[in-house]
Description:
Elements: H1 2-10, H2 12-37, E1 45-51, H3 57-73, E2 78-86, E3 89-96
Amino acid sequence: MIRLTQLAISKRSVTVLITARSAARGPLLVVLAQAGAAADIQLPIVVVITPLPGASAQDVSTQVTDPIERSIGNTSNLKTVDSSSVNSLSLVVACSRTARTSRTRFRRSTRT
């Protein structure tokens, strides 16, 4: 690492050239990357795990799980939304109509 630093200081013109080239290529690479980012990706299953330390299962259900279920429930092409609330933890699983995998059915739990 020290040799690289010494080389960069001793060959300033090369360092400036490499920096300028990298700066010029940056915007081009950003434009090219955005073209590929528009691909249509479909995730068949979404899992949301949310901790709420120290909360009872009932508190987790009302404060965390229910709002997440309502938000996810507005998604198009949704087949099912299953959830589980236990002490300090919420788990919500949403499956789209394109999901072909076997899934475990979760039931709401209000254990304290």
